[in-house]
Task: structure prediction
Amino acid sequence: MPVCLHKISSDYSNLCFKCKQERGTYMHCFWSCDKIQFYWKGIHHELEKILKIRMVFSPAMFLLNLVLANLAIANVLS
Ligand SMILES: [Zn+2]
Result:
């Protein structure tokens, strides 16, 4: 992570590798960065289409594979 590398050496920028605009934290680089959101939204859309269900768009589910009752399938698409 850019933030961790920056703590080790100030030679490294603490900005996100992809957008180079926000601090490169784990949460930003793997979830909230605009560049990666495009990827996750595509995955979310394709999963709903293939499984014919509505899924909550959550980092817990996509990054941590936590399929909790309140995060999981909302309803079956008709
Ligand atoms: Zn970014």
Summary: Residues 16, 18-19, 22, 28, 33, 35 surround zinc ion (CB under 6 Å). Strands lie at 53-55, 73-76.
